[in-house]
Design a protein that fits this description.
The chain is α/β, with parallel strands linked by helices. The protein has helices at about 40-50, 95-100, 145-160, 175-190, 205-210, 225-230, 245-255, 275-280, 295-305, 320-330, 340-345, and strands at about 1-5, 15-20, 30-40, 60, 65-70, 85, 90, 110, 125-130, 130-135, 170, 190-195, 215, 235-240, 255-260, 285, 310-315, 335-340. Strands 3, 5, 6, 9, 10, 17 and 18 form a seven-stranded mixed sheet that branches. The protein has a six-stranded parallel sheet with strand order 13-12-11-14-15-16, sandwiched between helices.
Length: about 350
């Protein structure tokens, strides 16, 4: 199959299209022909070499949707021809997280697409009944790749935040793929939304997505503005997506008794933190990974019902993956880039 393979870590230029073997699947797995794959900030970090679990050479891409072309003998809920979307990890189904419906943090399954498993920058991927759902006809295959990560990650984080209707939530990195969908979901859920972005040009787009207030956080110091905007109280919760650049100001923006859900980071490494703030204000800090299978089920229904519209910034052929990475690093795109394989673009 054709695939964009990562053979060495580095800049976008290390991404090259090559021919690689089609992945082999087991009796409890199936083979999916990939239609499209979203490009995530996680991909940029992976390409640069920030994840020790990535096994080179690898085929990148974890936001996958496509069509089942072969099924193992133990598969009962899917058949050849089914349109499907997947969450990013194939869980084992037997560890404690999997048994608790937390297959997104499975400790012993097949792994994560684009790191331990051949990913969606290739024409085929393996999948399991433990990470796959049927895709309704209402959702086209050039939109479906963003469901599990770009939308599902924010949905999962908001669920972890558990903020009551009417609460105020700050979302950093709001113009990125996860951020702008989190803005839409938070507004849909009845929250008052503050969106933080580094680009003044993207402020109106964030307001159109449902933000009640936008802060331009070029230097990261926006907590004074938010304290004033909330009459000195602070926000009830934060979805910290941007990471180190915004984290100090985000912490100082939280009201006493509020909470932060840590979702992402654009630059790996340690963040400065004074624990006295969390003690004096009884702040809660909660980690949040990607969507569970049940989260994806809810997202598919929300999108199929037209309650939110996925923000697709650009659709490109898979062969242009390096350019997609460059454009994302340059912050030229609001929303998600979707890479489409040749057969899907022809349709």
């Amino acid at each position: 199959m054709k695939a964009i393979r990562l053979s060495e870590f580095g800049g976008p230029s290390v991404l090259h299209q090559v021919e690689v073997p089609v992945p082999e699947f087991t009796a409890d797995q199936m083979l999916v022909r990939v239609a499209g794959c979203g490009v995530c900030g996680h991909d940029l970090l992976n390409r640069a070499g920030h994840f020790s679990t990535t096994q080179l050479p690898c085929v990148m891409g974890h936001e996958v949707a496509g069509e089942v072309v072969e099924v193992g003998s133990l598969i009962t809920r899917f058949k050849v021809g089914d349109r499907v979307a997947m969450i990013q990890r194939i869980g084992c189904g037997t560890c404690i997280p999997c048994r608790n419906g937390q297959e997104n943090i499975c400790v012993s399954g097949a792994g994560f697409y684009g790191e331990q498993i051949s990913g969606g920058y290739g024409e085929y991927v393996i999948a399991s009944e433990r990470n796959t759902l049927h895709l309704p006809e209402e959702i086209p295959l050039d939109v479906a790749p963003v469901l599990s990560c770009a939308i599902g990650t924010g949905y999962h984080a908001l669920r972890r935040a558990a903020l009551p209707i009417g609460s105020t939530v700050l979302i950093t990195g709001a113009s990125g793929g996860v951020g702008i969908h989190a803005v839409r979901l938070a507004a849909l859920g009845g929250l008052r939304v503050v969106a933080a972005t580094t680009s003044p040009a993207k402020a109106q787009q964030l307001k159109d997505a449902g933000a009640d207030h936008v802060v331009v956080a070029g230097g990261g110091g926006f907590h004074k503005e938010l304290r004033d905007w909330t009459d000195g109280i602070g926000v009830d919760g934060v979805l910290e997506i941007a990471g180190a650049a915004t984290f100090p100001s985000s912490v100082r923006s939280i009201r006493a008794g509020g909470r932060m859900v840590v979702v992402g980071t654009m630059e790996p490494g340690n963040w400065p933190f004074n624990p006295a703030l969390s003690i004096l204000k009884e702040l809660e800090f909660i980690g949040s990974a990607h969507a569970t299978l049940n989260d994806l089920r809810k997202i598919i229904q929300i999108v199929a019902d037209g309650k939110i519209t996925p923000e697709i910034g650009r659709v490109m052929p898979v062969s242009e993956a390096a350019e997609a990475h460059r454009a994302m690093e340059a912050k030229e795109i609001t929303g998600r880039v979707v890479l489409m394989h040749d057969h899907a673009m022809a349709n």
